[in-house]
Amino acid sequence: MTLDNVTTIMNDAIQTIIITSMPSIGLGLLVGLIIAVFQAVTQIQEQTLTFVPKMIAVFIVLAATFPWMSSLLIEMSIQLWSQIPLYSR
Q1: Residues 36, 40: Cα–Cα separation, whole Å
Q2: DSSP secondary-structure letter at 2?
Q3: Where are the domains of the chain?
């Protein structure tokens, strides 16, 4: 296994992780921003007000996008397992 192979595998893994985590992180960021603006306007400084809506939104997005995320991760895993004979040379 050469350094180029390792670099390619790591690059694909990092890209897959970033792509699969973007929907939940993006929505969590958007919900957090909306709640922060609401808190700034109303001057409510309750800690659970930011945590609970973000947690619910992220869980909903994870539930909605889980089939897509799992198919991407399984596809990458199958690709890696099928290329093991090529990498072992």
Answers
A1: 6
A2: -
A3: 3-87
Task: Please give the Cα distance from 88 to 46 (Å, whole number).
Answer: 56
- Asked if 85 and 1 touch (Cβ cutoff 8 Å), the reply is no
3-class secondary structure, 71: helix
Q: Which amino acid is at 3?
A: L
Q: Compute, in degrees rounded to 10, the torsion defined by CA atoms 77, 83, 84, 88.
A: -150
C-alpha span between 36 and 8 (Å, rounded): 40
Residues with Cβ < 8 Å from 35, sequence gap 6 or more?
49, 50, 53, 54
Q: Which residue has the tokens 């970033």?
A: 18
Q: Residue type for 10, please? A: M
Could you give the CA distance from residue 68 to residue 79 in angstroms, rounded to a whole number?
17
Radius of gyration of the chain (CA): 19
Segment 36-83, tens digit of pLDDT = 999 889 888 887 788 899 999 999 999 999 999 999 999 999 999 998
